[in-house]
Amino acid sequence: MDSIQSIARSAEALTKPASVQGRGFQDALASALQTTSDLQKESGRLSKEFSLDNPTVSLEETMIAGQKSNIAFQATLQVRNRLVQAYSEVMNMQI
């Protein structure tokens, strides 16, 4: 449940205007990357615990954590691709 709340907070922070949140793009991006990393670590931990037959970890919980991690990674990858594309376009502009 903690990871869902952190995703919601990150999404909320990314949708607020910079003047409202008082943070820059770099901070928002770093926060999103940290959230993605945390989700991947949690997914790996749950997967390991499930494979070790830990009775407190369910298959459903493990699969949901894996999907959250995958979605966060795909979103991060898309943002990176768009940033690289924008950078390339700026560098190719005629002055």
UniProtKB/TrEMBL annotation:
Q: What's the gene?
A: fliE
BP GO terms, sorted = bacterial-type flagellum-dependent cell motility
- For this entry, the protein name equals Flagellar hook-basal body complex protein FliE
Entry GO MF terms = cytoskeletal motor activity; structural molecule activity
Record's superkingdom? Bacteria
Q: Which GO terms describe its cellular component?
A: bacterial-type flagellum basal body
InterPro entries, alphabetized:
FliE
User: Any idea where this protein resides?
Assistant: Bacterial flagellum basal body
Q: What is the lineage of its organism?
A: Bacteria, Pseudomonadati, Pseudomonadota, Betaproteobacteria, Burkholderiales
What is the organism of origin for this protein?
Roseateles puraquae
One Pfam family this chain carries? FliE
